[in-house]
Write a structure and sequence with these properties.
2 domains; single chain; Arc Repressor Mutant, subunit A; mainly alpha; globular
Length: 143
């Protein structure tokens, strides 16, 4: 599977930004992700899955070292949505587990296929589909 670097770079950058909430840290993590990926060409059969795995591990490491002053600056919403809806959604999302938030991010923000997300978590497509439906139902109830 050949990948388009620009498209994958954007996906991984947004994923890192989701974790780190800081533009420069996300850019660094994204660059490091691709450097590490290029050092291991044996993962050519599932490049996106491997990129997400590298990015997640790098972000977790960066979060352990992140400076407290960087946590105060938070990215604004990408779209001009109703601020109350945005706040309510943020509150509801914060009540989810870290794993559930990541799944929702991958599916609805990054637009990843259920099969890729399922492979990342080592479950079947059916199980992941049911889990996503359950998470979205929980969010609907909280909104």
């Amino acid at each position: 599977m050949r990948m388009k670097i620009e498209e994958e770079y954007t996906r991984i950058y947004h994923y890192c930004l989701y974790y780190l909430h800081h533009k420069e840290e996300a850019e660094d993590a994204t660059q490091e992700t691709f450097l590490r990926y290029l050092q291991h060409p044996e993962y050519e059969s599932h490049p996106r899955q491997y990129l997400y795995k590298i990015a997640k591990n790098l972000c977790i490491d960066k979060m352990k070292k992140i400076r407290p002053d960087l946590l105060e600056t938070e990215e604004t919403p990408a779209h001009n949505t109703d601020i109350l809806t945005h706040v309510a959604l943020r509150i509801a999302m914060n009540e989810l587990s870290d794993e559930d938030r990541e799944i929702i991010f991958l599916r609805y923000v990054s637009g990843e296929k259920i099969s890729l997300i399922a492979a990342m978590y080592g479950v079947s497509r059916f199980v992941m589909s049911r889990r996503i439906k359950k998470i979205t139902q929980t969010l609907r109830e909280k909104l």
